[in-house]
């Protein structure tokens, strides 16, 4: 199994078993950074992209907060995520668009986005060059004065229940140094409104064997000049 197949398998199973807002899962609550990003949006209708949107943990609160006439577009490569995103939006009485696409090549129309959200998703591309290319496409698709709200995991590893540590089965092993280098170059002229580092643990299972996926994360809210 390679990292891409594992990402597909994990999310397919996870979304089949767990509902949006379910306590005890990472679907329980949206990231507060995304909610704070909403306070920074301009008045009037806006265009927001949620990349790797999943089942709408952030897409839905965004759609509920933006004024009529706005577009909120969730992008995910998993058909089940798109289906559940639309279903959850209908139940919540909000309007979103669901696009099935791979972030590896997804291109936003030039300078159209007021906000691009990418929470725990952008690192799911094939290698460091593809990650940098994705960030550049996101930047090109953002209006001057528009926002990026990102959470990116790096230095990831797995711990088996026996305590054995092993490399994480992910698309590519993004390191903290590599992430810093890309962010410092690409966001040099952007205003960094918030930038925080933390750590995260997700309890998962593969082939019936439980393990913990651990790593560090960067949370960044930045404004394009
Ligand atoms: C950890 S989940 C996060 C979902 C959502 N952002 C949230 O915070 O609830 C990662 C999501 O990214 C999607 N994803 C992973 N790799 C992707 C890719 N290359 N292109 C599009 N979507 C991808 C997965 O299907 C999954 O829904």
Throw out a few tags for this protein.
alpha/beta, 225 residues, binds S-adenosylmethionine, eight-stranded mixed beta sheet, 8 strands, 6 helices, Rossmann fold, globular, single chain
The arrangement of helices and strands along the chain is HHEHEHEEHEEHEE
CATH topology category name: Rossmann fold
The number of domains: 1
The fraction of residues assigned to DSSP E strands is 25-35%
Largest sheet: 8 strands, mixed
* Number of distinct beta strands: 8
| Net shape | globular
CATH class: Alpha Beta
- Strand pairing plus helix content: what structural class? alpha/beta
Full CATH superfamily name: Vaccinia Virus protein VP39
Radius of gyration: 17 Å
Question: In terms of quaternary structure, what is this?
Answer: single chain
Count of helices?
Answer: 6
Give the % helix. 25-40%
CATH architecture: 3-Layer(aba) Sandwich
Q: Identify the bound ligands.
A: S-adenosylmethionine
Which residues sit in consecutive blocks of at least 5 with pLDDT less than 50? none
Brief description of this entry?
The protein is α/β, with parallel strands linked by helices.
């Amino acid at each position: 199994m390679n990292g891409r197949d594992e990402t597909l398998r994990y999310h397919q199973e996870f979304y089949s078993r767990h509902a949006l807002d379910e306590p005890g899962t990472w679907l329980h609550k949206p990231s507060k950074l995304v909610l704070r990003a909403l306070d920074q949006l301009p008045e009037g209708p806006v265009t927001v992209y949620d990349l790797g949107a999943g089942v709408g943990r952030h897409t839905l609160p965004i759609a509920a907060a933006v004024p009529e006439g706005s577009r909120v577009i969730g992008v995910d490569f998993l058909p089940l995520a798109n289906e559940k995103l639309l279903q959850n939006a209908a139940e919540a009485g909000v309007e979103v668009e669901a696009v099935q696409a791979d972030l590896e090549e997804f291109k936003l129309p030039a300078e159209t986005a007021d906000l691009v959200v990418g929470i725990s998703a952008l690192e799911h591309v094939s290698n460091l060059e593809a990650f940098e290319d994705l960030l550049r496409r996101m930047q090109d698709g953002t209006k001057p004065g528009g926002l990026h709200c990102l959470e990116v995991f790096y230095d990831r590893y797995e711990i088996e229940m026996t305590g054995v540590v092993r490399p994480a089965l992910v698309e590519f092993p993004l390191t903290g140094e590599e992430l810093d280098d890309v962010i410092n170059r690409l966001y040099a002229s952007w205003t960094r409104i918030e930038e925080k580092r933390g750590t995260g643990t997700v309890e998962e299972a593969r082939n019936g064997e439980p393990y913990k996926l651990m790593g560090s994360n960067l949370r960044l809210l930045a404004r394009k000049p």
